[in-house]
Amino acid sequence: MAGLFLLVIFLLSPAPATLAGHDYGEALSKSILFFEAQRSGYLPDNQRVQWRGDSGLSDGKISGVDLVGGYYDAGDNVKFGLPMAFTVTMMSWSIIEYGGQIDSGGELQHAVDAVKWGTDYFIKAHPQPYVLYGEVGDGNTDHYCWQRPEDMSTSRAAYKIDADHPGSDLAAETAAAMAAASIVFRSYNSSYSAELLQHAHQLFEFADKYRGKYDSSITVAQKYYRSVSGYADELLWGAAWLYKATNNEYYLDYLGYNGDALGGTGWSITEFGWDVKYAGVQTLVAQLLMAGKGGKHTQIFKRYKDKAEFFMCSCNARRTPGGLIFRQPWNNMQFVTTASFLMSVYSDYLTSASTSLACPNRPVSPSQLLALAKSQVDYILGDNPRATSYMVGYGKNYPQQVHHRASSIVSHKVDPSFVSCRGGYASWFNRKASDPNILTGAVVGGPDAYDNFVDHRDNYEQTEPATYNTAPLVGVLARLHAGHNGYNQLLSVELPETKNPKPVTNRRQGLIIVEQNVTNSWIAEGKTFYRYSAIVSNKSSKKLKNLKLRILNIHGPLWGLTKSGDDYFFPKWMEFLGAGKTMEFVYIQPASPAQVLVSSYTLV
């Protein structure tokens, strides 16, 4: 497996000096805007990237299926299913972790719209339980031409996987995207969320039952998105997201019983992206373990966690002289943004568990891990030897000749004259001038191993952007924009230690009883932390719905409730508490128990 390190030395070197503080909120807004430039299909009335127009309006027609919509992956006009699904998964994960922070930046609706543009397409692409269309267009004919998507005259053939021509990696990644997106939409559109989850279940079953690599079935994808890692990582990845979306023990057991056979506990990986998902699933399982959900799989989940920490520790193993994580010459930035995302969420998971990262030479605190993620984002935004922003449209010095068909050719709204297949190369590709359309928010491939960058349109290794470069960055930018408040409930507050917390508290409010108990305690950094279990009991003979709790004096991480403003509600996956039933939430803090008040509820 490429990129495997046998020895890792984690040294947190200082980031390059910042000339001026970055506006992470501005970068966040621009990163989300980029996805509107990548849209295929009929553009909506609220389309903000006005130089784009409708395109791909006959996609799927020759196959008798409607495949209009979705995203172009990069600077071409092909819709590749595997990277598109990964893009949607990562955008959804960004919202799940940092939705509140994205909302505070005024961008949550735009982010949710970006996810839905992808999932609407996946619903169309999955017309039957064991059929999934994984590509529209042909990379060979598309790359022969240089045309705006509005003008494209290339093949729009559609390619699918089915029971006789399987593609477990593609199906399982799409299942992950649908499951993750179902979590996003649970609070906004419950029926749409349920529809996504149904597709996710079917796609995962398809992936697991009919195993095979998708590029053995859709062979035209081999030159562009070959599945080098195979499908085992996607099967685990899909199961992890389905467990997060459903809490169904089947998927937790799948992770536990298949961790060894499918490589989740064995592969020590130093990259995470559209092809290799091991570091992502290892991070998700580590979170489950830190949240106390290991159960009978605790020992094997610890081995997942060990591999997740290997990834985190390896992020400093190879860097450019200017400090950028470096994995490969071609579109290295995809690995920088994904690593930054995983480091950001893992730092927050560590904070929630009041622990640190165990690297070979010394422990690394959550704040140090987040600082490394921040240094990568700052490099992208301009803190580098060239003082170049690798996000188009951000800062004063950013790439002007992006390897991107739509941005490099004058908008059809300015000049509707048809741009022919080869004529586009002569008239637009070979121009030594800036792009007529600014591809705002695009993250290009980036510099080489020595921080060198050549801003030429034909330098596709460095100047081509991709949706999967930008999607992980959305979450990191939201986290950094929020500062200390980036992780809401999971950032602990320094409080004086209380030596003798009350072991049990009971509060009866009408027919609802809240009972709290201390279930564990430990000492970390000289403080005693207590784990509190709070049991909410419905003593009525009716269903309990719309429960609203106010929790006072809460100063640490809390699991098992959904927070909105100052109030707490049922977790998103739970609609009601049955008659005579109980539910549990837990929290950790170095203090006496919080005061739990029942503000309101409904019995039906």
Automatic annotation (TrEMBL):
SMART domains: CBM49. Residues 512-592 form the Carbohydrate binding domain. The active site is at H403. GO terms for biological process: cellulose catabolic process. It holds the Pfam family Glyco_hydro_9. Residues 1-20 form the signal peptide. One of its GO terms (molecular function) is carbohydrate binding. Its main location: secreted. It is found in: Secreted. Keywords: Carbohydrate metabolism, Cellulose degradation, Glycoprotein, Glycosidase, Hydrolase, Polysaccharide degradation, Secreted, Signal. It comes from the Eukaryota. Belongs to the glycosyl hydrolase 9 (cellulase E) family. This is Endoglucanase. It comes from Salvia splendens (Scarlet sage).
